[in-house]
Amino acid sequence: MLEICDLNAGYDDMPVLKSLSLSIVEGEVLSIVGNNGAGKSTLLKAISGLVRSTGSISFRGTRINGLKPHAIVQKGIVHVPEGRKIFPEMTVDENLTMGAFLNPKEYRRHLDMVFSLFPRLSERRKQLGGTMSGGEQQMLAIARGLMGSPKLLMLDEPSLGLSPLFTESVFSSIGEISRSGVTVLLVEQNVCQSLEASDRGYVMETGSIVLSGTGRELIENPQVKRAFLGM
Ligand SMILES: Nc1ncnc2c1ncn2[C@@H]1O[C@H](COP(=O)(O)OP(=O)(O)OP(=O)(O)O)[C@@H](O)[C@H]1O
Ligand SMILES: [Mg+2]
């Protein structure tokens, strides 16, 4: 579904991604794990057109690097950024409406879908986004992303700062999103849980991929155990 080949990207004169290649298969949940500063968020920004890149990113056979971010969203790639970035002065309903701006015809169907996925949001439709708890804001950020009708949903650290209970609930919603037919690219520092929830994974180190495999293979890999699981 997504093929990345020899990708280089960074900020001003600081290179971050170095000749990175990976692929995402339609229908899978794929995780990318790596230490702080490895370049995971930069990779998602390069895919969604927020940072410039060289090399190639193609989505369903069409090259997308160089396109503007809105054109990439229109193709079905939705990015839920690190730190949630909901609109704090808008209500839950208004945040969801913003997520649907490219896709107003499907508004009702998507609204029903996100409320069944996150019933708590349906109880708080008039509450301002900024007054929701951290976990609720994360649900809202994911729900807003889903309102854009993604084919590929990219989630950057969705469990960051959440209690174990909320983390569980975010991972279980990722399972449901995947079963509804959306391909999921997950970037996480919660290495064990995210690999468990994934079909496949990649380990990233200083801007390149150093390991890949099924979620299970990576959890059992001695290098992964040493680097991320403290074993
Ligand atoms: N806007 C920016 N301008 C300059 N440098 C940046 C910018 N954003 C990120 N960087 C740098 O790029 C490198 C990769 O950062 P990135 O945010 O992609 O890492 P990450 O793997 O997502 O890390 P984390 O796990 O901490 O979120 C870091 O050295 C970071 O300081
Ligand atoms: Mg990051």
Distance between the termini: 35 Å
Q: Can you list the ligands bound to this structure?
A: adenosine-5'-triphosphate, magnesium ion
Give the class-level CATH name of the largest domain. Answer: Alpha Beta
User: Might you state the CATH topology name of the largest domain?
Assistant: Rossmann fold
**How many strands, which pairing sense, and closed or not: the largest β-sheet?**
6 strands, mixed
The percent range for strand residues is: 25-35%
Number of domains: 2
From the alpha-carbon coordinates, what is the Rg to the nearest angstrom?
17 Å
Number of helical segments with 4 or more residues = 10
Structure keywords:
10 helices, 37% helix, 28% strand, binds magnesium ion, binds adenosine-5'-triphosphate, alpha/beta, globular, 231 residues, 4-stranded antiparallel sheet, Rossmann fold
Q: Could you please describe the fold and organization of this structure?
A:
The protein has 231 residues and is an alpha/beta fold. It folds into 2 domains: 1-76 and 152-161 and 168-231, P-loop containing nucleotide triphosphate hydrolases (Rossmann fold, 3-Layer(aba) Sandwich); 86-149, no CATH class. Helix content is 37%, strand content 28%. The protein contains 10 helices and 10 strands. The strands form 2 sheets. It has a 6-stranded mixed sheet, with helices on both faces. A hairpin with a 2-residue loop joins strand 9 and strand 10. Helix 4 runs antiparallel to helix 6 (134-147). The chain is globular, with a radius of gyration of 17 Å. The N and C termini lie far apart (35 Å). The relative contact order is 0.19. The model has no long low-confidence stretch (mean pLDDT 93). It binds adenosine-5'-triphosphate (ATP) and magnesium ion. Magnesium ion binds at residues 40-41, 82, 156.
